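Lecture 7 notes: from sequence to structure.
We start with the chain below.
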Amino acid sequence: MSKYVAAIDQGTTSTRCIVFDKQGNIVSIGQKEHEQIYPKPGWVEHNPEEIWKNTLEVVAQARIARSIGIDDLAAVGITNQRETTVVWNRKTGRPYYNAIVWQDTRTTELVVYHQQKEEDDWWKITTGLPLATYFSALKLRWLLDNVPNLRKDAEKGLALFGNMDTFLIWNLTGGPRGGLHITDVTNASRTQLMSIFNVDWDNEVLRRLDIPKEMLPAIVPSSKVYGTIAAEPLRNVPLAGILGDQQAALLGQACLEPGEAKNTYGTGCFMLMNTGTKIVPSHFGLLTTVAYQFDRQPVHYALEGSVAMAGALVQWLRDNLGLISSSAEIETLARSVKDNGGLYFVPAFSGLYAPYWKAHARGIIAGLTRYANKGHIARAALEATAFQTFEVLEAMEKDSGIKLSSLRVDGGMVANELLMQFQADLLGVPVIRPKMVETTALGAAYAAGLAVRYWTSFEDVRRNWGIDKTWTPEMPEYKRNNLYMYWQKAIERSFDWDE
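Predicted structure tokens for the same chain:
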């Protein structure tokens, strides 16, 4: 009998393969970063071929580290950075252009053009998503308009589109020799090409954006045996789970009932609340998205608040300013001062996402005086993530009518205890870190393992979840209100910076 389930976690900055046992513990891990490409201000790209090679390498790393045989693996699940858009040739497998990353803002003019033609929030009503540079649809339209011969090949059925899950699955299952061209419902819901009601590609959206339907993958459930893998490091292992990274974290956190929510502190910051089989339209700046779908089961939905810059802001302080030499040093630097010194850092590097959706906002540091030092900047950067989370949670409570009694958290930044305490202080509710913080990969593993009966029910998922640490609020309400007042002043000053 197979001992483990593997998850391929293709993220914004790196690709990992993590192998889990039945108790949801990590058995082995392989990881490799890939290049972040910035051709112009606001443009962010990845090399899809580099990511594909890294995927094969990290799978091999994870297997070799613990001598894991093919027969030891019951199934493989995939989770991925969402919205990042890649188009490749069906016959050669070669990408026509670099992958355009979810943070990229080159489609700002297309957003404005379609907003001017919009009537009655049509895009948000149809797809659950507001018009924004964030999603895949306008990225795909930009590629069709700007890459030589791509539209011609697309209309002939030679060019294939997908987010990173689709690109990796196609390669893993044979590539030009019969690779599966599929995506799951969660990733499809992030393209802005899918009807949130019908859970299928929307013909009117495709007509408005002039996107050939022949390019699009088939939409499948998030948990199902799709086929077996052909690529050597995983040959003949069933591929049985696909989830966008934030939906995978929702499952990994065992948020399986309506009203249960999690927040992931990664490159960006993403809060999701399970709304069950009910579609909840947002009136306060959130997204209506698909949470997951198990084979032969109804689709489950979620409300989501997306923040573009969280861990990415710490990376910027490290790589662009040289303020720290490693991301882990941010907490020590922030603790060198007793408070933010009156500084507020709005990291609107790619505009503002939820709940504002201001494409023309840009990053600012407000409240600078001669008193300020690098410790205050570090502290303000961490606090920015907590302030943005607070605004998303406020919107989520208004949309759902549910007052959250606690917040489950995961992602790389939850190791930062200063941030977690400030988050609890700001929210006024306990912040709970689980024993297993690699919930994104774990969620993909659960989706795959449930499909092959490695885990038999959601009860196994709930049983595996456990608390590592809880932070409870300690800040007086007057102080919290004062901090938030200044944050709101800073946010407003970031609006419409870019004309």
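Points to note: The chain has a mean pLDDT of 92. DSSP finds 16 helices and 23 strands in the chain.
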